[in-house]
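DM between two lab members

TW: hey, do you still have the 30S ribosomal protein S1 entry open?
JB: yeah, one sec
JB: this one, 558 aa:
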Amino acid sequence: MANTTMEEFEALLQESFEMDTPNEGSVVKGKVIAIEAGQAIIDVGYKMEGRVELKEFANPGEAPEIAVGDEVEVYLRAAENARGEAVISREMARREEAWDRLEKAYADDARVEGAIFGRVKGGFTVDLGGAVAFLPGSQVDVRPVRDAGPLMGLKQPFQILKMDRRRGNIVVSRRAILEESRAEQRAEVIGNLSEGQAVDGVVKNITEYGAFVDLGGVDGLLHVTDMAWRRVNHPSEILTIGETVKVQVIKINKDTHRISLGMKQLQDDPWDLVAAKYPLESVHKGRVTNITDYGAFVELEPGVEGLVHVSEMSWTKKNVHPGKIVSTSQEVDVMVLEIDGAKRRVSLGLKQTMRNPWEVFAETHPEGTEVEGEVKNITEFGLFIGLPGEIDGMVHLSDLSWDERGEDAIQNYRKGDMVSAVVSEVDVEKERISLSIKALGGDKFADAVGGVKRGSIVTVEVTAIEDGGIEVEYEGMKSFIRRSDLSRDRAEQRPERFSVSDKIDVRVTNIDSKTRRLGLSIKAREIAEEKEAVEQYGSSDSGASLGDILGAALKGDE
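TW: and the structure you got?
JB:
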């Protein structure tokens, strides 16, 4: 009996020597034989036991699921430690197992399941069932994610973008999965849409230029110009995020899958009735919607706008910005000047609804009317004077004074002076009004020489004696008699023989209305008198001397 036992022992000992003990650094199967102090005691066979922390059996955020009797795979790090126990790890076993599985999935371009469990710089950490991967922030969703809280700990599919087992690096993407499913969904939605179709959509986003509308998995752009027939300054005027709207599919780009939408296409086009509603030269009320450098846009009705060009805004304000004449939202009366249905353009006039101020002035101020106004401007050729109706009249240099040269007379005026003048001409077409200051109180020269003709004898008064002749005055009009015209007799052609205030008879030799001068001569009067005496008292060949005849004539005069 004892011998038998001895033999059995030897056999068992031999068997144990021959038995292959597992290699350190490999994954082995084991059985949970006890759970104590937060650890599982696992028998890995070969008379080896080891301890593993319970948390190594739990997925991130979950409670460990382990019980006595469970079979598990663990990684044998060392066969024996100081306490004579095997050093084993469940986590490392899971990692090895996971890497094998993930490498196969990466090779097959297959999706893997995992859960986001932590946040790191530039992204998140993902547990892929034992292996830890990096999820960059840009790969979390199709659009940037502000709060990744709801995604944490959630089991979901990922796509492996890169892996390096030697370095232990894995990079995954959630976005690639979403894009793929979205592309499938998009293709399906687009396949069910056709151009011209009316569909319901939800406003997802509003920008300066339009709104994005979700048509059930696919977005379409509703441009601001397609929202309404009227001018829309910003989409938020008529849309709000989350609102359901009816839109028409205008265009589908099969290559880019872009969809253009419109709302106004589902409403009646107001332009169909424009020509009938707004005949040429008819006047309508409108609202100023926009002001530019070249004019103002006026809305006649929602969807119908016309342009009042700057040249059609005012009769009088020529080089003024439209914003100085009208303001946005102002109600104005406008006249329809032209309609171009093809280009959807209406030309409007603002000034045509008011009377031409030059016409009004011509009616109320016929030529010869006296007016009063402020000197608005002084130029080298005359004065501009402000008149009723915000228009100007011009007094030319030549119309400033009868007596002074225009260049001298204009020096007497300053900007802002109030002056009176007479209307001399109104040209409505050229928008010109000519005024005269010198014509105030009539034409003195015309009045003075009214009954005087060439050859008339008039009495003048000497006002000044000069070397070259004498200055005389007739009815307030000054004239000059040259030395050679002072007498027929050369010896008597001396200015000094006259005195100021002398009254003398002279003959009118010329009437010049332009220079407003009378040509006067004593010599001409004497010659004329001599001629008359000869005719009365005999001819020059009757033998009587001229002196006799003149003497007799002069005696007769006395």
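TW: got it. Residues 109-179 form a domain with the OB fold (Dihydrolipoamide Acetyltransferase, E2P) fold (CATH 2.40.50.140). The mean pLDDT is 78.
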